[in-house]
């Protein structure tokens, strides 16, 4: 094994670049080992929960081989049904989402993890004391979409990692910045497993890791932790809160008397912009477009009505009827790609392109820490899938309403029918310019 210590330079000082590379290799190795342990624990728990196989008159080894052959031969016929009699959870059947034959349209879409698998990983990590209680709570909130929105997710992740730093104790013989960086990387790995990391959260985590790596080694442990916590608050204050206030002050100036402003879903920056314009005395109306299953726009409607702003609420299906009434479209985004394309909640591109067809100006409000160096031409290159069961009807047969939505039973009965719920879409940059 190669020596991990940095090679000295000709002047006798250690090579800092080699030290950083060695530390990065150690962090990567630790993350791989932790992931391998979690997979082994989940596999062992699944094996323990599997019902015992019985077969009269056959040895155990023969029964195993015969059952293996039978399961392989029956696999294509049972892809949409269950052998235990209970209908499988549609969210657990997302391994074949969008797959027809050998072609997969959604091959790069990150699929959601089942609640059972998440609970298994969290219990294993808690038993080994590798996950902080604040991170465990955050993982649960992220996986259940209790915390959503780019700014809210970034702030929640930084707060949880700040709790990890506050409770951290340097082991004997270890260096704080190196050991703490490994500990934080483990927590981040668990967060990513609960829900994929978006651009804003990724930038926040990279900022924190950089601050940990450059902390002064001469500082005492309490001083170093206080410095890191102060840097976290600095990022939240300057890059998120103050940046949003600057955007709100500029965007509010684009709203004039008599305007009808349309927005989609919920964005904290858009909410602040509308309230700022209202406080400045501008008289305008707002049209909030929303979509299922999250219905984020309802929260924005409630806050606008409480502020006294005339508001119209409509679903995405009524977009063509409401757009001609509008004179301005304000949209938030989760990320701004390097070619100027907003990467936002699914439905944003439809609102922007519909407004473009009616020659209505579209303004995208985005903080600089959401800027990404990635380029996407469509929504299938990189995307995230939500729980597809949220798109289906959960009404039973005794319900009086006649819903035309598919039910989980109907989807499970058709092996070639799959439900897909994409979380984001990409708006062409020329439309939103």
Automatic annotation (TrEMBL):
Keywords for this protein: Cytoplasm, Initiation factor, Protein biosynthesis
Bias kind Polar residues: ranges: 69-84
Location of the protein in the cell: Cytoplasm, Cytosol
Segments for region (Disordered): 1-91
Chain intervals with Basic and acidic residues compositional bias: 10-40
Extent of the signal sequence: none
InterPro entries hit by this protein: IF-2B-related, IF_2B-like_C, NagB/RpiA_transferase-like
One protein family per Pfam: IF-2B
GO-annotated molecular function: translation initiation factor activity
GO cellular component: cytosol
Gene3D superfamilies per record: Translation initiation factor eif-2b, domain 2
Keyword Cytoplasm recorded: yes
Family membership noted in the UniProt record: Belongs to the eIF-2B alpha/beta/delta subunits family.
UniProt subunit comment: Component of the translation initiation factor 2B (eIF2B) complex which is a heterodecamer of two sets of five different subunits: alpha, beta, gamma, delta and epsilon. Subunits alpha, beta and delta comprise a regulatory subcomplex and subunits epsilon and gamma comprise a catalytic subcomplex. Within the complex, the hexameric regulatory complex resides at the center, with the two heterodimeric catalytic subcomplexes bound on opposite sides.
Designated name of the protein: Translation initiation factor eIF2B subunit delta
UniProt source species: Malassezia brasiliensis
């Amino acid at each position: 094994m190669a020596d991990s210590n940095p090679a000295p330079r000709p002047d006798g000082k250690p090579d800092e670049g080699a030290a950083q590379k060695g530390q990065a290799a150690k962090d990567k190795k630790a993350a791989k080992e932790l992931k391998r342990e979690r997979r082994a624990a989940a596999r062992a728990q699944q094996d323990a929960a599997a019902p015992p196989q019985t077969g009269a008159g056959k040895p155990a080894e023969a029964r195993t081989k015969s059952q293996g052959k039978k399961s392989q031969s029956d696999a294509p016929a049972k892809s949409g049904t269950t052998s235990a009699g209970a209908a499988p959870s549609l969210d657990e059947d997302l391994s074949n989402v969008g797959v027809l034959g050998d072609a997969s349209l959604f091959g790069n879409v990150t699929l959601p993890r089942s609640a059972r698998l998440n609970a298994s990983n969290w219990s294993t990590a808690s038993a080994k004391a590798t996950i902080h209680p604040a991170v465990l709570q955050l993982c649960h909130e992220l996986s259940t979409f209790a915390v959503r929105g780019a700014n809210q997710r970034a702030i929640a992740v930084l707060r949880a990692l700040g709790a990890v730093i506050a409770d951290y104790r340097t082991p004997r013989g270890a260096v704080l910045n190196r050991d703490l960086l490994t500990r934080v990387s483990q927590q981040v790995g668990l967060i990513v497993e609960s829900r994929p990391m978006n651009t804003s959260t990724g930038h926040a985590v990279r900022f924190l890791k950089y601050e940990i790596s450059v902390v002064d080694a001469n500082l005492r442990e309490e001083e170093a932790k206080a410095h890191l916590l102060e840097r976290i608050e600095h990022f939240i204050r300057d890059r998120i809160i103050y940046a949003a206030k600057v955007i709100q002050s500029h965007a509010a100036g684009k709203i004039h008397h008599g305007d009808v402003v349309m927005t989609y879903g919920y964005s904290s920056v858009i909410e602040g912009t509308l309230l700022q314009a209202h406080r400045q005395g501008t008289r305008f109306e707002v049209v909030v477009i929303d979509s299922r299953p999250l219905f984020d726009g309802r929260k924005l409607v409630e806050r606008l009505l409480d502020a006294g702003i005339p508001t119209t609420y409509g679903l995405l299906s009524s977009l063509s009827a409401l757009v001609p009434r509008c004179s301005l479209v304000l949209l938030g985004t989760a990320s701004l790609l390097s070619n100027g394309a907003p990467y936002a909640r699914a439905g944003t591109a439809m609102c922007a392109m519909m407004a473009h067809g009616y020659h209505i100006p579209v303004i995208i409000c985005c903080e600089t820490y959401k800027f990404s160096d990635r380029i996407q031409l469509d929504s299938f290159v990189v995307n995230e899938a939500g729980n597809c069961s949220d798109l289906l009807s959960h009404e039973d047969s005794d319900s009086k309403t006649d819903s035309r939505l598919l039910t989980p039973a109907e989807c499970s009965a058709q092996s070639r029918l799959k439900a897909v719920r994409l979380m984001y879409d990409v708006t062409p940059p020329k439309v939103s310019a």
